[in-house]
Write a structure and sequence with these properties.
The chain is an alpha/beta fold. The protein has 2 domains: about 80 residues, Orthogonal Bundle (DNA polymerase, domain 1); about 240 residues, Metal-dependent hydrolases (TIM Barrel, Alpha-Beta Barrel). It contains 14 helices and 7 strands. A 7-stranded parallel sheet has the order 1-2-3-4-5-6-7. Helix 1 packs antiparallel against helix 2 and helix 1 packs across helix 5. The protein is elongated.
């Protein structure tokens, strides 16, 4: 098989399993290096191994592929990585409103994320890097976000519309971590709590209600902040008056995100049920931080289908024109 394709498939499978970002990145880097080498260097094992960005593991993958074999590591990953979960609802999803690039804490460029979304058949993808308060994630200042916007929108084409967005932090008082003027220029605003997750229920409820009432907010991201598995360990869900918050979401037309990452499974099933009762819209999103994680939408679709969420109440099943009208409204 083609060695570059083998390296990229390994990277994608590692990303889907949320393996170490450095492992996946090493295989993507090796693919880039190999693609740029002249044929005589590719075919010379000594010179190939000496190239910066080609390590022992990636070298072995390349050599096996060059011999016409499917690399052993790729065979191993194909056998252990969970296959995509197919469901009737997954087939109705048209896009994804929550993804990250290396402008904040994602692992790859805007272009690489867009190419992966296009390969999955998405009709639209929102690039929603973090806001400035989340420094650990290299959140974008107003200046950096304004610099990013034309680069994001320039990626639209070949059947995919790329939406300019942000995952904006909900601050302790419910304010949003970006200027209203700049938020007004974006196509999609996902608002999420990332700090003080253990606030008492009363203050947390007021904090979320204030954010949901902001006219710029389209999606309430991973609303409880919980972690139920994975290398980051577990974290209990935030406490708040879910019925009040979801009623406000319904009133203001804010979609409740069904976060597709298996380590989050957020909201929990009981909160999805409350959001349904309150008449909420939903958005099934990947929260992808790497290209291979865009396919995690299948997890969110399976959870939504099991919870009985009607497809017509999921904004990511809507066509682009209807989605834009909702987001702008």
């Amino acid at each position: 098989m083609d060695a570059v394709e083998a390296l990229l498939e390994i990277a994608t499978l590692l990303e889907r399993e949320r393996a170490s970002r450095y492992r996946a990145k090493a295989f993507r880097q090796a693919a880039d290096v190999l693609a740029g080498l002249p044929a005589d260097v590719r075919d010379d094992p000594t010179r190939l191994r000496a190239q910066k960005g080609i390590g022992a593991s990636t070298f072995e993958v390349i050599r096996q592929a060059q011999r016409g074999d499917t690399p052993d590591y790729l065979v191993e990953l194909r056998g252990v990585v969970e296959p995509e979960l197919r469901s009737a609802l997954r087939a109705q999803l048209r896009g994804d409103l929550h993804s990250h690039t290396d402008w904040s804490d994602g692992t790859t460029s805007i272009e690489t994320m867009v190419a992966a979304a296009r390969a999955l058949g998405h009709e639209y993808l929102a690039i929603t890097d973090h806001s400035p308060r989340l420094r650990v994630a290299r959140g974008l200042s107003a200046e950096r976000l304004r610099e990013q916007l034309p680069l994001v929108r320039a990626q639209s084409g070949y059947g995919l519309t790329v939406l300019a967005g942000i995952e904006v932090d909900i601050l302790e008082d419910g304010a949003l971590d970006q200027t209203p003027e700049l938020l007004g220029e974006l196509d999609i605003v996902v608002a999420s709590v990332h700090s003080k997750l253990r606030m008492e229920s009363g203050p947390m409820t007021r904090r979320m209600l204030a954010a949901v009432a902001d006219p710029h907010v389209n999606v309430l991201g991973h609303c409880t902040g919980r972690l139920v598995q994975g290398e980051r360990g577990t974290r209990p869900q935030s406490e708040f008056d879910a019925r009040a918050v979801f009623a406000a979401c319904a009133e203001h037309g804010v979609a409740v995100e069904i976060n597709s990452r298996p380590e989050r499974q957020d909201p929990p099933d009981d909160l999805i049920a409350i959001a349904l009762e309150e008449g909420c819209l939903f958005s099934i999103d990947s929260d992808a931080h790497a290209p291979g994680q865009l396919s995690l939408l299948d997890h969110g679709a399976q959870r939504a289908e099991a919870a009985g969420v009607p497809a017509e109440r999921i904004v990511t099943t809507w066509g682009l024109e209807r989605l834009r009208a909702w987001a702008a409204g």
